[in-house]
Amino acid sequence: MRACIPLLPVLLLSLLVPVEAAARQDDEAEKRIVAVLRFDNNTGDEQYEHLGRALSSMTISDLSVIERIQLVERERLEELLAELDLQQSAYADPSSAQSVGMIIGAEYVVAGAFVSVEPEMRLDTRIDRVETSEIVTTAQVRGEREALFDLQQRLADELIAGFELVLTEEERERLRAQQEANRIDDLDTFMAFSQALCLVDYGAYGDALEALQEVQRAAPGSQIVRLTANSLRDRAGDEARSRLESEARSRLGGLLGRNRAPAPTPRPAAC
């Protein structure tokens, strides 16, 4: 005699599967694809020249824990900016920000700038909707220059509100935990992190890793510094092996009278 299979659980399962699939599709459709560009240095002070890299990196890391926001990788953006050779500040010129957003496939572009009037610093941001070219919102935070990390945290909160997202309590807890995990309190250390990111962007991975190790000693608890350093180890190793192989070939060529040893790769002048 054949076993009788209960119909109700089967029917319920057949109903639930499409509902769950639809829920996943809704979640994916709701995601905002966001590009956070390097912040512009409007201080007129060259010592802050690379600070915008760290500010964008921190902001991307903070927002990455909100699952309804999909962030474009910072290094991918830097490569694009280098290819486009943008002469005009993306913050000052919305059309530049829109061009980047269209090419990268982002729905929103965050452009920012910072101004320093001792002892304060002000961070300004603008969110552009790429499809319509409209400015969705602007945000500004101001405070003590030495408390730059806290200013950046406040700015992340302002940006989330600009994306018209109401965070759940769980999302807020994740955001706060991420921000605390990334914490760099000392301004000089923050700027050293920025310098290291400049070396990354110019492909000087060995120098960047060495610089990041110094930053780690100053901010041993910072997750973003540790993860950035870890991501560079393989690239720095490949760079070192390639340099050694090149030097070995040159020495062999020199013994044979074919060529001279190459000059060591200089540190990027821009950093």
N-to-C order of helices and strands: HEEHEHHEEEHHHHH
- Major sheet size, sense and barrel closure: 6 strands, mixed
Overall pLDDT metric: 82
Give the uncertain stretches in residue-range form: 1-5, 7-28
Instruction: Report how far the terminal alpha carbons are from each other.
Output: 81 Å
User: Could you state the CATH homologous superfamily of the domain at 24-183?
Assistant: TolB, N-terminal domain
The count of β-strands is 6
Share in β-strands: 15-25%
At the first level of CATH, the class of the domain at 24-183 is Alpha Beta
Please identify the oligomeric state: single chain
Helix % is 40-55%
How is the CATH topology of the domain at 24-183 named?
Rossmann fold
Q: What Rg do the Cα atoms give?
A: 24 Å
Helix count from the secondary structure assignment = 9
Structural class: alpha/beta
What shape does the CA trace take? globular
Please give the CATH architecture of the domain at 24-183: 3-Layer(aba) Sandwich
